[in-house]
Amino acid sequence: MSNFINLVKLQTRNLLFSSIRHTRSKGKQAAGMGFLAFMVVTLLAVSSFYSITLLNALQGEERQLALYTMALAAFVLLLVFAAYNSGNHLFGSKDYDLLRSMPISKTALVASKLLSFLSLQYFYALFLLMPAILLYGLFTGQSLLYYLGGLGMFLVLPMPAVVLSALFSLVIGYVSSHFKYKNLVSNLLMMIFIVLVFFGSFMIQTLVGSAVDVQEVIRNMQLYLPFFGLMVKGMIEGSLMSYLLGLLCNVLPFVFFVVFFARHFTTINSRLRGSYREKNYKLAKIKQSSSFKALLMKEARRYFACGIYVMNTAFGPVIMLGASVFALFSKQSLMAIMNELPPELTSQISVILALGMIFLIVMSCTTNSSISLEGRHLWIIKSLPVRTEEIFAAKIALNLMILIPAAMLSVLLLALLFSLNIAELLLLLLLCAVTAFFTAGFGLIVNLNFPRFDWVSETTVVKQSMACMISIFGGMILSGIIAFISIQVIGNTPVPVYLLILNLFFILLDVVCLLYLKKVGVAQFKQL
Amino acid sequence: MLEIKNFSKSYGDKKVVDNLNLTVENGEIFGFIGHNGAGKTTTIKSIVGILEFEAGDILIDGKSIKNDEMACKRIMAYIPDNPDIYESLTGIRYLNFIGDIYKVDARLRETLIRQYADAFELTANLGDVIASYSHGMKQKLMIISALIHQPKLLILDEPFVGLDPKAAHILKQLMRELCDQGGSIFFSTHVLEVVEKLCDHVAIIKNGSIITEGSIDQVMGDQSLEEVFLELTDHE
Predict the structure, then answer these.
(1) With an 8 Å Cβ cutoff, are A288 and B106 in contact?
(2) pTM passes above 0.90
């Protein structure tokens, strides 16, 4: 039993607190803790804001819809977050060999893996679900039983998300293990899974939304999504039977999965890890390239070999491209909406597009984890005859390669759609480039200051590291400030002039980043 | 080829190497031995430019690793104690990556890769991703990657760990060949028999300081290296 408790504690700590324990510096640890606390408060505030907005928008019995909607959003997001992590934590964990060689029972090992994984989902559910449960209770004056029911839902709602994501990870792992480039196949399949989840939730919303009134919407939720639909019904209406049925819908699949997983844990891991292919490589003609190209190709291969890295950083380019293409194909309906908007807003469309592009670009930073991801391989680039500046350039170039073509194509499509003049088009294209450069440079600086090399899973670096969080939230805050200032001055400044100011601002930031990397970053890298 | 002058390195307040001096001549194989934590890997990582150090200097072919890092790195190769290499690359891509960085001509690269990969029986596996390699295969790949740019100085940290007997034998042959052609080798190991048979010079490090250094015959006298090592390192 003590082994089991120790394992759960160890693995939970590894999953939850991995972002702040990487540095020996007390100052940086304190800064990390402070930033984490800031993030927790911010996420709670954002989640609460959504719930309050929904609750204020609905009146009377219709307010129930707010809780159902937030529970659906929580379920979908939990499923996505669980899918990101389950492959690494449950099946592909690097501590598998070590743990299996220890005198720990298979059941204790499996249970510890699942419990620690669930604890991570509770961490997410705390932001996604808890504010909605509490706020609905406060807005509608619910009894103690409601809150107890809410606590129960908080505890069991992550379970089906864990089961579904684990099953998909299992399938993905099994299929990809038969390919030479299994990481690439695994990435593609995982992307398909995430798209399917969002598409599925969209279909459910369409299905639910086709109802004639709110009560029918709620009935549809209870019918199609009993995981939370029945539990919410039980909590609100005090129906114990509905609540228990909903509870079973969450708990039973989880119990079956635990039993299945425990029974086949070794077989699953052996199958996923071991495969044999005929070795028949014949040395062919070799092409020579420059050291910079070699470094860049190494970065690119590293990037595309890590699914979580791709999914965490490619959504910006994917969204900007997807939205532009979608907008182009929905030109007529979009123009109809545009005609409804006040002319002072439609005349500023370039600024609105610029703000959107800035936000999507700063959210797609690959450099904030590219130093940390060198991990145990750091010795290679440190012992090679390449200048540190060249290493930095390759890392920045990869980020630019991912961002700039997608951003520029999007701007061209949108310029076509909104008939932007040539000055606005050129300024928007330049803005994409300088913002992308800032994103890459700033990410690299943050990673140099908060490197993390003792990771076991890449997820720890790409999603949970301090560098990643500072860079992403820093970018969000910056784009928020720019949006705020833009709203204040949007009517008083000619659009091209304002776009020029935005460009100059980012060029200034680029210069600051470049100077920092040259003067301080090189020395910091040598100290690593 | 390699000259270490008054080299000291600390981690925080702890001095792990203290005023170390040694010289490796052209055409010489130099064995560097010591107990775990004596400062071998720290010294090696400083020689190859991975670690910065606060005192002394390290000269490679007369150039300082502190002041002329690139020139030093271009003529040496390093094989660490753990074969941690980019697992997402295939073996051949890793070798090409190294070839590009050291600007090895494509035709020469092809010849050398074929020669060393055949010698280590790794050619058929070069198309596979490194993640699928065993520890020994990764070790062989690192050795090949170190040799394809024809270094003048080869620095190896525990190079025989994980190698099968045949590969270890080939490595010893290649080390001797490199030195016969005028190159130099500096390596650490715990396998004292290898040092006895292979090295021209040896140094024993204890708690960050050299306690004996000289030609292998001078250091051993009429004892075995194991006896000398145990006598010196046990003596307080």
Answers:
(1) yes
(2) no
